[in-house]
# Entry
Amino acid sequence: MSEECIFCKIAKGDIPADKILETETLLAFKDVNPVAPTHVLIIPREHISTLNHVKSEKSGIAGEMLMAAKEVAQKTGVAETGYRTIINTNRQAGQEIFHLHMHVIGGRPLEKMG
Ligand code: 5GP
Ligand code: ZN
# Structure
């Protein structure tokens, strides 16, 4: 737990969030400022600031996040139509909250990247 981290506070239940999925290690909840009909964030309960900080012995969390994305897509009805999974790492990539999170975005046609 990082004192000032908003996602740690959501994980602890100190700040409310619209939860989609909860496991022992992960939490998925709706993004407060959605860019598409489905916009869900998947976070580890443990505070890890960026993907760069995932230690190799904890790499299982990455697979768990992807499997959670699949489940979120099924639950929100975009598994077949399509969805995108994104992890922004550090400032140039647009990371604003420094608690590891994966975006799951879908429910409308998405622009090609790059
Ligand atoms: P980043 O830009 O760091 O990859 O994404 C951070 C995301 O967190 C943004 O899409 C933003 O809308 C979302 N966000 C920021 N604060 C909150 C919050 O308090 N609650 C929820 N549900 N989402 C948040
Ligand atoms: Zn945190």
